[in-house]
Design goal:
Layout lengths: L5 E9 L7 H19 L3 E8 L4 H9 L4 H18 L6 E4 L3 H16 L3 E11 L4 E3 L17 E10 L5 H10 L4 E2 L1 H12 L6 E2 L1 E2 L7 E2 L2 E6 L1 H6 L1 H4 L9 H6 L4 E5 L3 H14 L8 E4 L2 E3 L14 H8 L1 H11 L6 E3 L1 H31 L12 H22 L3 H22 L1 H6 L3 H21 L7 H9 L36 H12 L2
Parallel strand pairs: 1-2, 1-12, 2-3, 7-13, 12-13, 14-15
Antiparallel strand pairs: 4-5, 4-6, 6-8, 9-11, 10-11
Helix pairs in contact: 2-3, 6-10, 11-12, 13-15, 13-17, 13-19, 14-15, 14-17, 15-17, 17-18
Bound molecules: 5'-O-[(L-methionyl)-sulphamoyl]adenosine (MSP).
């Protein structure tokens, strides 16, 4: 891997229509984890997130709050940035579609499409879903309702501009045939390809006259550019595409990974590639469509009283436990479930019992048996050590492979196997007996391997749980930065004069199941 290989990662830009719940926080946490991982692997990373601030829905929400749309989105942008700061989200840029740097370029992109004959003027009549701001053909409706949100749709007619999607049909099909892994997971790609691409694309209506909170068409000001054209182009306007300074754009485009929820894969898998083709730009390398965090009774919604906010979890259980839960719960592309029981169970089992206890036991034993000093690297390895080291080396490879593919939950699973294996190693070697029998060399060997596994785990969980990693290093007495790099997990270093702390604070304090279930249920019904 070359030192300066670039890695550009994006999240969708969120609608600032209400307070962000844990579902929205999931995508951003996911992207942040991949950025950290790539950074640790020596990539020059660039992480973009932001807000999708135009459209009827935002205009309506602002009105209902007695604010102008601009006042409303300005407040929401502050709130979003506060949340990301609280979650230690390390984005490189935060784009808002109301910023001049974006609006100016969207106008230009629109005019370019007009000039090239990709956009034409016509009349639109169709079924329109107001909250989703999308027109549907009768066949796309599900039981006469919006296929995305299930709400009522209205028949609407208006003069509008259309993007000639049909012109790009063959190119898009060819692209999918040549790049079968463009969308992951594959079943989402197949769904999109078979249900929406293969049957033939419809031209897309790209303007509205029914509301005015948006970017106006420069050459025909009564038309407002439809939010999806406005929104999707954020991924390039943020990099300075078509601006006076395209250096960043030239460096980072095409995106290496665009993370989106399953509900917006159609926009990213059809319209976005076609807009890029029309601009003669390379396509992103990968679109990852993740599932949704669901509640027992379906989607999170205020009216059902089943919403949980990231702040609630962070304040009570800490940032790392919150992130751990989110990233563990959704396996590749599938939905995951948030239940109070599930949350507490993961906290107590994975974090307290497995990880926390391993560290605590190891620190305790090194203090008891060796006055706190980490034993030196053993000269001769036992068969059990060789088996253990092979296991760990194998798992490291799995973690890397999974993270290279952005499979965050699988990678966690692999890391936790090292933790379980290490706990089992204590039971197998019975250090307390070795101590009694004065088998000092064997005892040193066991302690060395436990510290080593913990050090490796501390590094591998760093992209996910950045508060826990330094706590673990601190307790282990490791302050040499060379022992904290990703590359260092491949080696078994010498430890000289390193002392663990005398008494380690528990990384995670066990929760009382009943008490927490009550607390969480109460929070959800607020
Ligand atoms: N503004 C558009 C995206 C434009 S991108 C050019 C949008 N915004 S959104 O706020 O409605 O959703 C943003 C993201 O949050 C989507 O990827 C969506 O899938 C995700 N999630 C919303 N609720 C979610 C869960 N309950 N669980 C996981 N992700 C969820 O769509």
């Amino acid at each position: 891997m070359s030192e300066n290989k670039k890695y550009y990662i994006t999240t969708p830009i969120y609608y600032p229509s209400g307070k962000f719940h844990i579902g929205t926080a999931y995508t951003t946490t996911f992207a942040n984890t991949i950025k950290k991982y790539r950074q640790m692997r020596g990539y020059d990373t660039y992480f973009l997130t932001g807000l999708d601030e135009h459209g009827q829905k935002i205009q309506d929400v602002a009105m209902s709050r007695g604010k102008t749309p601009q006042e409303h989105v300005d407040e929401m942008a502050v709130a979003a940035k506060e949340l990301w700061a609280k979650m230690k989200i390390d984005y490189d840029d935060f784009i808002r579609t109301t910023e001049p740097r974006h609006e100016k370029i969207v106008e230009q992109i629109f005019e370019t499409f007009m000039k090239n004959g990709d956009i034409y003027k016509g009349e639109y009549e169709g079924w329109y879903c107001v909250p989703c701001e999308t027109f549907f053909t009768p066949t796309q409706l599900v039981d006469g309702k919006c296929p995305d949100c299930g709400r009522e749709v209205k028949m609407m007619k208006e003069e509008a501009y259309f993007f000639n999607m049909k012109k790009y049909q063959d190119r898009l099909v060819k692209f999918y045939e040549e790049n079968p892994n463009f969308i992951e997971p594959a079943f989402r790609k197949n769904e999109l390809f078979n249900n929406f691409i293969k049957p033939g694309l419809e031209d897309l209506c790209v303007t509205r006259t029914t509301f005015d909170w948006g970017i106006k068409v420069k050459s025909d000001e009564k038309h407002v550019i439809y939010v999806w054209l406005d929104a999707l182009t954020n991924y390039i306007t943020a990099l300075g595409y078509m601006s006076e300074d395209e250096e960043r754009f030239n460096k980072y485009w095409p995106a290496d990974l665009q993370i989106v929820g399953k509900d917006i894969i159609r926009f990213h898998g059809i319209y976005w590639p076609i807009f890029l083709m029309a601009l003669d730009l390379p396509l992103p390398k990968k679109l990852f469509a993740h599932g949704w965090i669901m509640m027992k009774d379906g989607k999170m919604s205020k009216s059902k009283g089943n919403v949980i906010y990231p702040e609630t979890l962070i304040e009570r259980y800490g940032l790392d436990a919150t992130k751990y839960f989110l990233l563990k719960e959704l396996s590749i592309g599938q939905d995951g479930l948030f239940t109070p029981e599930g949350f507490v169970e993961r906290f107590n089992t994975d974090l307290c019992n497995d990880l926390g206890n391993l560290l605590n036991r190891t620190i305790g034993m090194i203090n008891k048996y060796f006055g706190g000093e980490i034993p030196e690297k053993p000269q001769n390895l036992t068969n059990l050590d060789i088996e253990l080291e092979n296991f760990v080396n194998e798992k490291i490879k799995c973690v890397e492979n999974e993270l290279d593919e952005a499979h965050v939950s699988n990678a966690l699973e692999e890391i936790w196997q090292i933790i379980s294996r290490s706990n089992k190693y204590i039971d197998e070697t019975m250090p307390w007996s070795l101590y009694k029998e004065e088998k000092t060399e064997e005892l040193k060997d066991v302690m060395y391997h436990l510290v080593e596994n913990l050090r490796k785990v501390a590094i591998m969980i760093n992209p996910y749980m950045e508060e826990t990693t330094p706590k673990m290093f601190n307790q282990l007495g490791i302050d040499n930065e060379n022992l904290m790099t990703w590359d260092s997990i491949k080696v078994y270093p010498e430890y000289k004069d390193i002392k663990v702390v005398e008494k380690g604070e528990p990384l995670f304090v066990r929760l009382d199941l009943q008490e927490e279930i009550e607390f969480l249920k109460n929070e959800m019904s607020k």
